[in-house]
Design brief:
binds guanosine-5'-triphosphate, 37% helix, Rossmann fold, binds magnesium ion, alpha/beta, three-stranded mixed sheet, 23% strand, GMP Synthetase, Chain A, domain 3
Length: 294
C-alpha cells in the first residue's frame, strides 16, 4: 500500500478546503465565501484502492495582524515539515499579483530542496472562459518551478481525476498509513464548533466573520443523543446584536442550520444550545486563544 502526506497551501479563499473535502469524499473542513475560514491545520485522509493520501488543509497565507493570524500562518508553514508532497493552490480568475508572488517565493524558499517539486493547482476554472486558462498557466509557469500545473475546479470536480492521477504517481511509501475507516483526527467536539462557525459565516458580512469564534462548553453523549452547549464569541457589543438578530432570529437560524448538519454528520439526534458572548480582543489574547484551541 502506498502512503504519502500532501499539504495544500495558498492564499485565503482559493478553495483548499473544498478540495480536501472532495478528495476525502466527506466534509472534514468548513468552507465559506469569506477569506480566512480555516484557522488550523486539518487532516483528511483520502483512501484509494492501492494508496492512502493524508491531506493537510491549511489556513490561507496572508499578512498577519493579530496573534490569531500569526498562529494561523505559522500552522500553514509548519505543514511543510510534515508533508512529503506540496500543492500550492491559486484562484485562476485572478492575475498573479504581489501577494501570489510572495507566497510562491516563500514556498520555494522553505520547501527543502531535496524534496520533490511542488504541484501548482489553478482552481476555479469552472468560472473562467476557456481562452483565459492557458495565459494564466503560462504566467504561473514563469513564476516558479512546478512538477505539474493542473487547471481544475474543486467545486465541480473538473479535472480532479487528473489531479488524483498525478498525486498517486507521486506518493511513495512514506510511513505507516491509517486504518480503513480513519478520515480525520478532528474530535466531534471540535467539528461541532466548526460547523457552528460555518453557519455564522454564512449569515454575516464584512468584518464580523474575522472576529467570530465558537467554543463548545459541553458535549454530552446520551445514547443516540448529543447535548451540545456552545458560545459564539464576538469582539464587540454591536456584533453581538448582529449575530443575535431581531428577536433572536439570527442565532436561531444559525442554531437550526448547525443542528441539522450535525445530526447528519454525527448520525445522532442533537440538542443544541447556543449563546452569544462578547470577548474583547480575543484574537490578541493568549489565554483566550488557548481556550479555543488555537
Ligand atoms: N466556482 C468555484 N468556487 C469554488 C471552487 N473552489 C472553491 N470555491 C468556493 O470558494 C470559496 C472558498 O472556498 P474554501 O474551500 O473555503 O477556500 P480556502 O482556500 O479553504 O479558504 P481559507 O480557509 O479561507 O484559506 C467557497 O465559497 C467555495 O465554494 C471552484 O473550483 N469553483
Ligand atoms: Mg479553508
Amino acid at each position: 500500500m502506498k502512503f504519502g502526506t500532501m499539504a495544500i497551501l495558498g492564499r485565503p479563499n482559493v478553495g483548499k478546503s473544498t478540495l480536501v473535502n472532495r478528495l476525502v469524499r466527506q466534509k472534514v473542513a468548513i468552507v465559506s465565501d469569506k477569506p480566512q475560514t480555516t484557522r488550523t491545520r486539518i487532516l483528511g485522509v483520502a483512501h484509494f484502492p492501492q494508496a492512502q493520501v493524508a491531506l493537510l488543509d491549511t489556513p490561507g497565507l496572508h499578512r498577519p495582524r493579530h496573534r490569531l493570524n500569526k498562529r494561523m500562518v505559522q500552522a500553514a508553514w509548519d505543514t511543510l515539515y510534515e508533508a512529503d508532497l506540496v500543492a500550492v493552490m491559486v484562484d485562476g480568475r485572478l492575475r498573479p499579483g504581489p501577494g501570489d508572488r510572495f507566497v510562491l517565493e516563500q514556498v520555494a524558499d522553505r520547501w527543502p530542496s531535496h524534496q520533490s517539486l511542488p504541484l501548482l493547482l489553478v482552481n476555479k476554472i469552472d468560472l473562467m472562459a476557456k481562452p483565459k486558462v492557458l495565459p494564466i498557466i503560462k504566467a504561473y509557469s514563469q513564476m516558479g518551478t512546478w512538477s505539474d500545473i493542473i487547471p481544475m475546479s474543486a467545486k465541480t470536480g473538473l479535472n480532479v481525476d487528473r489531479l488524483i492521477e498525478v498525486i498517486l504517481n507521486r506518493v511513495g511509501d512514506h510511513g505507516e498509513g491509517y486504518s480503513n475507516e480513519f478520515v480525520t483526527d478532528q474530535s466531534m467536539r471540535n467539528f461541532a464548533a466548526e460547523i457552528i462557525r460555518e453557519k455564522v459565516l454564512d449569515r454575516t458580512r464584512a468584518e464580523l466573520p474575522y472576529g467570530v469564534a465558537v467554543k463548545v462548553e459541553e458535549f454530552i453523549e446520551q445514547g443516540n443523543l448529543a447535548r451540545i452547549s456552545a458560545f459564539i464569541w464576538v469582539e464587540k457589543q454591536g456584533q453581538k446584536a448582529i449575530v443575535i438578530g431581531k428577536g433572536g432570529a439570527g442565532v436561531k437560524a444559525i442554531g437550526t442550520a448547525a443542528r441539522l448538519e450535525m445530526e447528519q454528520v454525527f448520525e445522532m439526534k442533537v440538542f443544541l444550545e447556543l449563546r452569544v458572548k462578547v470577548k474583547e480582543a480575543w484574537r490578541d489574547t493568549d489565554h483566550l486563544l488557548a481556550e479555543l484551541g488555537y
